[in-house]
Specification:
Immunoglobulin-like; 14 helices; 2 domains; single chain; Alkaline Phosphatase, subunit A; alpha/beta; 7-stranded mixed sheet; 21% helix; 10-stranded mixed sheet; 582 residues
């Protein structure tokens, strides 16, 4: 970036002035100081980050920065980069650290059009802890709020005489139990990028961002960065794995390796996957050159070949994954998101699966990742995402979401088996955010009633009749004669027939700028007017807290009501990660 010749860095004498950067004298009248990272940010001592101060609404001014009363340049040991653009001045320190544990006060002063401005923020620096766990496996059920867990428990374990016949694998991790708040610093309701970024970095960010704080730059790759778990673990000699049923460059897995203001920068994110040793999921369209049918790249790079040149074994289906050997694997099993469990493992409709008829399930991907990563004597960090729980609740298809929740729970069981055999493994299961779903009761048409009239409440509800003859945890059919009546708090116009759909179908379709109910979804269903803006064609996220369950060394950190950023600190605490050590 080119800066004005009038911008220069200076040292201030002990005249009581703050030290920092001086930028001209003419400024806009309406301006504000923005300090990034934001107030109340928490850092792992020694972890790298970019610090930026912007004077917004001013072409120039005088910016001075003190950290605990000392010149910022002196504290960081580097000089800042300065900028003086239209209605914006700024100071940026890149790849710096805070190493002294405790509370840190940052004071900033600026002058805008002769008017002095002040801003102060307080940071907390957490000291590295003694290592407790060799490995950490983090399961993220995307959109898996408490109702999703309960629905999966009903279907997978059953309920009789008012008591559940068993608990999910994730619910048997009871050494650490917490409620996790999910808001970002820009909005009460988050998206997956922002929420997963909090788990990956220990810092809040904004909707659609990961691994960065939002500045005024239009380039999504030039926002101030914070170090993520993949970078910290790799620096400590550990192996890293990312497993997802989504496009592997989608928000949640991407947040553990990438730094960008826009989660849509998936071509860039695909290259960042080199920070992981095992990458398994969908999304080959981001790795194939633009000349390949189905590719969404804007260039001729073949990232699959590039990964292979760096020692990765490529797997494109279930058989190739099972046969894959080596310490680095790239597995891509669909052009975009993988198909959900019901379609992939049960119905196997060619019209739904297309060319991808041999996709592995999440249990197989999880086991392969653990087998490969556990060969590293220095330990590993593995993130496993049940991604399509969220995507199916967006589509108001609770049955498909429930089977994918059960699928992730079965993968948790595989991780538990590994931990019981090998020890020294912390397992954490949580969600990135919730949805407004609720179990109203049951639904059946045995007496001839249909639609909303066949929703059974209170004593009329009784129990659903899901069965699991082979005891594999998955009900034999998603459409028993008595099913659950699941309803939604935040939805577009739609038609609801309370019946399972043999093929995925959207609840609403766009007509101009407005979403209208998709009558073909349930032709005989009840029409429900939407309660969200007309431009939304799917159900949307909710701000509800989400549950967390943990087991293994370090699980005691997770208790009570916690910010989502604390999940990061629980993980680095258990692993004893100390960025100051080489």
């Amino acid at each position: 970036m080119n800066f004005s010749r009038g911008v220069k860095f200076f040292s201030v004498t002990a005249a009581g002035l703050l030290a920092g950067a001086v930028i001209g004298a003419s400024a806009a009248s309406a301006s504000e100081i923005v300090v990034l990272p934001i107030d109340r940010a928490k850092f792992l001592a020694g972890a790298k980050f970019d610090m930026e101060v912007e004077l917004r609404g001013a072409k120039s001014g005088e910016i001075k920065i003190l950290i605990d009363g000392k010149d910022a340049a002196e504290v960081f040991g580097v000089s800042p980069v300065l900028k003086n653009e239209s209605s914006l001045s700024g100071v940026r320190f890149s790849d710096v650290t805070l190493t002294k544990p405790g509370e840190i006060k940052v004071e900033v002063e600026a002058v805008s059009d002769g008017t002095p401005l002040k801003k102060s923020v307080v940071y907390t620096v957490a000291a590295p802890q003694k290592q407790q766990a060799k490995n950490v496996i983090l399961f993220i059920g995307d959109g898996m709020g408490l109702p999703s867990r309960q629905i999966a428990r009903i279907l997978s374990k059953g309920i009789s005489s008012g008591k559940y016949n068993g608990l999910l694998e994730m619910e048997q991790l009871n050494e650490g139990t917490a409620l996790i708040s999910t808001s970002g610093y820009d909005s009460l309701v988050t998206d997956s990028a922002n929420a997963a970024s909090a788990y990956a970095t220990g810092h809040k960010t904004v909707v659609n961002a990961m691994g960065v704080y939002e500045n005024s730059d239009k380039d999504p790759l030039k926002h101030p960065k914070v170090q993520n778990l993949a970078e910290l673990a790799r620096a400590a000699g550990m192996s890293v794995g990312l497993v997802s049923t989504a496009n592997i460059t989608d928000a949640t897995p991407a947040a553990f390796v990438a730094h960008t203001r826009r989660r849509a920068e998936q071509n860039f994110i695909a290259g960042e996957m080199l920070k992981a040793d095992v990458i398994l999921g969908g999304g080959s369209r981001q790795f194939l050159p633009q000349s390949t049918p189905g590719s969404q790249r804007k260039d001729d790079r073949n990232l699959i070949e590039e990964f292979e040149s760096k020692g990765y074994v490529f797997a494109g289906d279930r058989a190739e994954l099972a046969a894959a050997k080596g310490d680095k694997i790239l597995g891509l099993f669909n052009l975009d998101n993988m198909n959900v469990y019901i379609d992939r493992e049960m119905l196997k409709d060619p019209a739904v699966l297309g060319d991808f008829t041999n996709q592995p399930n999440l249990m197989e991907m999880t086991k392969k990742a653990i087998d490969v990563l556990s060969a590293n004597e220095s330990g590993f960090f593995l993130m496993v995402e049940g991604a399509c729980i969220d995507k199916q609740i967006h589509a108001m298809d609770w049955e498909r979401a429930a089977y994918d929740t059960i699928e992730m729970d079965r993968a948790v069981g595989i991780a538990r088996q590994f931990a019981e055999k090998n020890g020294s493994t912390l397992i954490v299961v949580t969600a990135d955010h919730s949805h407004g779903t609720s179990i109203t009761g049951t639904y059946h048409e045995k007496d001839g009633k249909t639609g909303r009239h066949a929703v059974r409440t209170y004593a009329s509800a009784g129990y659903p009749t899901f069965s699991d003859a082979d005891k594999d945890g998955f009900p034999d059919s998603p459409a028993p004669d008595v099913t659950l009546a699941v309803q939604y708090a935040n939805h577009p116009d739609y038609y609801e027939g309370f019946k399972f759909h043999p093929r995925p179908v959207s609840p609403a379709i766009m007509s101009g700028d407005a979403a209208v109910g998709n009558a073909s979804r349930d032709p005989d269903g009840t029409f429900y007017p939407g309660n969200i803006p007309l431009g939304e064609s799917q159900e949307v996220h909710a701000a509800d807290d989400v549950p967390l369950s943990a087991g293994g060394p370090g699980a005691d950190y997770f208790k009570g009501v916690m910010e989502n950023t604390e999940v990061f600190f629980g993980i680095v605490r258990a692993l004893g990660l100390d960025p100051a050590k080489k």
